[in-house]
Amino acid sequence: MDPTTSRRTFLRIAAGGAAAAGLAACGSSGPKSSTGSTGSGASAAPAGSSAAGASTGASAAAGGGSVTGNASYWFLNGQPQQGVRENQVKRFNSSHKGASLKSTEFQNDAYKQKIKTAIGAGQAPTLIWGWGGGGLKSYVDANQVVDLTDWVNGPAASLKSKIFPSAFGAATVNNKVYALPVETVTPIIFYYNKNAFEKIGAQPPQSWGDVMDLVPKFNAKGIAPFSLGGQSRWTNMMWLEFLLDRVGGSEVFLNVFNGQKGAWSDPSVEKMLTMVQDLVKQKGFIKGFSSITADSNADLAVFYSGKAAMMVHGAWTYGTMKSQGGNFVKSGALGYMNFPPVDGGKGDPSDTTGNPGQYLSISSKSSAEEQAVAKQFLLDNTLDDASIKDWVGTGAVPVVQGTRDQLAAQPDKMDSDWLTFNYDIASKAKVFQQSWDQALPPTQAEVLLDNIAKLFQLQVTPQQWISNMNAVIGK
Amino acid sequence: MAIPALVFFIAFGVVPLVGVLALSFARWDGIGAIHPAGFDSWHAVLTDPGLPHALWVTFEVMFFSWAVQTPASILIGVFLSGHQRYREFLAVLYFVPLLLSSAALAVTYKALLDPNFGLGPGLHFGLLTRDWLGSGGLAMGVIIFVVSWQFIPFHALIYQGGVRQIPASMYEAASLDGAGRVRQFFSITLPQLKYTVITSSTLMVVGSLTFFDLIYVLTAGGPGDSTRVLALDMYQQGFQANLMGPASAIAVIIVLVGLVLALVLRRLGGRGVESQLEGA
């Protein structure tokens, strides 16, 4: 196998496809993601203009329904996303006599090991839930997932046309589509607590300079500037993704992704790493951040309980904050915006990062009958009207084009503002960067996460970080 | 009679061990095909600065948890072997930590030690409000404490059995000679427990090589890599970085270290058939 070449091709497809199509970015919501459930597709997706023909909702293509047989489907648990998925399976099973889809649910981290082991042992479920990107590529390299290109462009063309084109970047390997992004778009958001800002009489930051000015002010009032679930590691990574983009533009990571030798040596990387360590040294993150996990939602609790004033986190956390944060969201105390620009930085301030979608693949070890059932499920029940309604109900933007009006029509003003904000971020972003740990192959991603954890711990200097990371480029 | 045991040992002990050894000379991502790769994995593992660090952390955990557990277990074991009032009630109480699973313990301690929502901030008790799991030295201390807390009951049980084996006549003779309880403890109990100490220490030392669940849940090897023991390093290489080759090499290293340590401990116990009992 030749990883370099294939990765390049993968990227080209991502960028090319996105450019051609309109709307950029789709992220996918990593449900309660933990270790790296962030991450989305390849890289850049230049936002085009004309939104493609958005057949809002609408029953998916092919009115089949005549399939018979059984298939299996593994996915992540964790509400509210779990409920949406369960309903999809229920609807499929009740509307398709003779066919049956059996689902099994796993916790995020457990799932990551389990699915890998199952696929390696040839025991994969028919439908494999995943994050696309580098992980999907490792399945493709091992011939474990079905090439869906012809199906997506043929029988499933009307389903494909509904989906944000840029979401296909992370589903494409060697110019071929191996997964379907059928859930939601989840960019990473800069959240702030309006009550905390009132306490110190300050405005939300407009630039990185403002952020650094706010840090001592919040600390002086006994409020931690930022919440962070640092033990999960990918949580820290979101900072690097945004800062590198804002400082050096999206090309810097693109070079890394392309396997260009020494790509981390770009001067903007060292600048970005120094900024991160400065923030750590200035006590920008809540005390004990490196022992807080995102799985437990303790990082959210720190934020909505007012112990921390700001937080950079995935859009999927909105639903959790709303349901668990008491009056926090309802009272209007939750503020949100895109990550602020860095003075003198090269990046486009509309750029975002996160998950362009969640991806369903079909195991190549499954029988023709099982594959037919799985495809029918994808067609009929993943982005049908009911699913879209359910996803919107969880506070997430479905990976479907042209839903802005529907999102804006939510009865709850908080929800409709939030949803349209997300839709705009995702659709107007010049570049929607898939989370690094998902875009890169697992080996490189692990070294990255390891070094990021050490960076936040001040165990490595920016120079060491760069040379550690350069050493694994292309691996 | 030994055949079923032998079959199980070969099937679940020897075969996987050989498999891991073979894998350490291969390149495999856990999903695709396995390719022979010669000494690549070994080269990668042995030149990785992470290995000496993980070894060092492993030995730290091993040594300190041994140093905490052994005296505590002996004292509790001696106490439990006596005939004081409430002894049985206390014995049951001491035994509780052993009944809990490591993962459950870790989750509980993690919640209790949380610097924002844990016991310290909850009770407004400043001394307990620390970044227990978020700063290197403290995190190591917490792990050693929790490990010891969990396993002291088990070793106390071993020592209790050991102490009860000591003939009462020795103590009677000693008290006739005027030895007090402290003197009896050091001159009779401890020497008589020599083999029990070796057994218990072997279990502690070899067992601590494979601590995984507890550390994984408590710190995941963090902060940074401050508490990344060998077993955790192996897991991260194998199941997170998809590098089954290097992970297998680390597994082989763990096995070797364990064997060497067990051997050394056996040697420490002497090889003769000397008996420590009276009259021998």
From TrEMBL, chain A:
<protein>
    <submittedName>
        <fullName>Carbohydrate ABC transporter substrate-binding protein (CUT1 family)</fullName>
    </submittedName>
</protein>
<dbReference type="Pfam" id="PF01547">
    <property type="entry name" value="SBP_bac_1"/>
</dbReference>
<feature type="region of interest" description="Disordered">
    <location>
        <begin position="26"/>
        <end position="61"/>
    </location>
</feature>
<dbReference type="InterPro" id="IPR006311">
    <property type="entry name" value="TAT_signal"/>
</dbReference>
<feature type="signal peptide">
    <location>
        <begin position="1"/>
        <end position="20"/>
    </location>
</feature>
<dbReference type="InterPro" id="IPR050490">
    <property type="entry name" value="Bact_solute-bd_prot1"/>
</dbReference>
<keyword id="KW-0732">Signal</keyword>
<dbReference type="InterPro" id="IPR006059">
    <property type="entry name" value="SBP"/>
</dbReference>
TrEMBL record, chain B:
<keyword id="KW-0812">Transmembrane</keyword>
<feature type="domain" description="ABC transmembrane type-1">
    <location>
        <begin position="55"/>
        <end position="265"/>
    </location>
</feature>
<feature type="transmembrane region" description="Helical">
    <location>
        <begin position="54"/>
        <end position="80"/>
    </location>
</feature>
<feature type="transmembrane region" description="Helical">
    <location>
        <begin position="92"/>
        <end position="112"/>
    </location>
</feature>
<dbReference type="GO" id="GO:0005886">
    <property type="term" value="C:plasma membrane"/>
</dbReference>
<feature type="transmembrane region" description="Helical">
    <location>
        <begin position="195"/>
        <end position="219"/>
    </location>
</feature>
<dbReference type="Pfam" id="PF00528">
    <property type="entry name" value="BPD_transp_1"/>
</dbReference>
<dbReference type="InterPro" id="IPR051393">
    <property type="entry name" value="ABC_transporter_permease"/>
</dbReference>
<feature type="transmembrane region" description="Helical">
    <location>
        <begin position="132"/>
        <end position="152"/>
    </location>
</feature>
<protein>
    <submittedName>
        <fullName>Carbohydrate ABC transporter membrane protein 1 (CUT1 family)</fullName>
    </submittedName>
</protein>
<keyword id="KW-0813">Transport</keyword>
<dbReference type="GO" id="GO:0055085">
    <property type="term" value="P:transmembrane transport"/>
</dbReference>
<dbReference type="InterPro" id="IPR035906">
    <property type="entry name" value="MetI-like_sf"/>
</dbReference>
<keyword id="KW-0472">Membrane</keyword>
<comment type="similarity">
    <text>Belongs to the binding-protein-dependent transport system permease family.</text>
</comment>
<keyword id="KW-1003">Cell membrane</keyword>
<feature type="transmembrane region" description="Helical">
    <location>
        <begin position="239"/>
        <end position="265"/>
    </location>
</feature>
<dbReference type="InterPro" id="IPR000515">
    <property type="entry name" value="MetI-like"/>
</dbReference>
<keyword id="KW-1133">Transmembrane helix</keyword>
